[in-house]
Amino acid sequence: xxxxxxxxxxxxxxxxxxxxxxxxxxxxxxxxxxxxxxxxxxxxxxxxxxxxxxxxxxxxxxxxxxxxxxxxxxxxxxxxxxxxxxxxxxxxxxxxxxxxxxxxxxxxxxxxxxxxxxxxxxxxxxxxxxxxxxxxxxxxxxxxxxxxxxxxxxxxxxxxxxxxxxxxxxxxxxxxxxxxxxxxxxxxxxxxxxxxxxxxxxxxxxxxxxxxxxxxxxxxxxxxxxxxxxxxxxxxxxxxxxxxxxxxxxxxxxxxxxxxxxxx
Length: 264
What we know:
The protein has about 260 residues and is α/β, with parallel strands linked by helices. It has helices at about 25-40, 50-55, 60-65, 70-90, 95-100, 135-150, 175-190, 205-210, 220-225, 255-264; strands spanning about 110-115, 120-125, 160-165, 195-200, 225. It has a five-stranded mixed beta sheet with strand order 1-2-3-4-5. The longest helix has 18 residues, at about 70-90.
């Protein structure tokens, strides 16, 4: 049955496996947090509460240590870079009304969870409705932040499904835009990508992935899958009917936006 209701919780019985660390790893995480504290804004700064919220989010420093392969100095460099980026970009403070226009065609939709309880972001370049601009990047970051809010306790990563059905050279993002997005995802949302899935990629656009391939770090490349059997990765009741699942979600702009804002 067609529905406008989003799947905002994992399938009952989904096993979430929280990260486990050795005593030595926990010590490294604590050292990194102590270091990050020395970089924090003063409490009287208006952005302090948002920075502190991000820094104390479950496993924040753990993700940076994992991304740095447990090399403390590298983790310090990376978390310092993200703190600086967040102060400039302020992803926590993006106003919904400022990016609302980017959502009206359903080119990015957060809906459902995979077999590991990761929230799913569907990206459909064929539904592009605006020209390249900083607002497009803001909208993507806004969606990443909302998907993180959707994560159940113990889960720290998400799934991105890029569906190229009906995409054209005109609607597909430029390699320049893709590079900006990759930089944000790889540098400032470290270890957030659990799996990246690409489906219905036409031969005409295969050059696009050849073009961005040099900018994909090895970890991101390893998480990418092209045209996999989605039913093995996403529960049938959560999988979009377009891909053979039972979730007959039908996008409706106002209903979608309201649910995303209410649930996050």
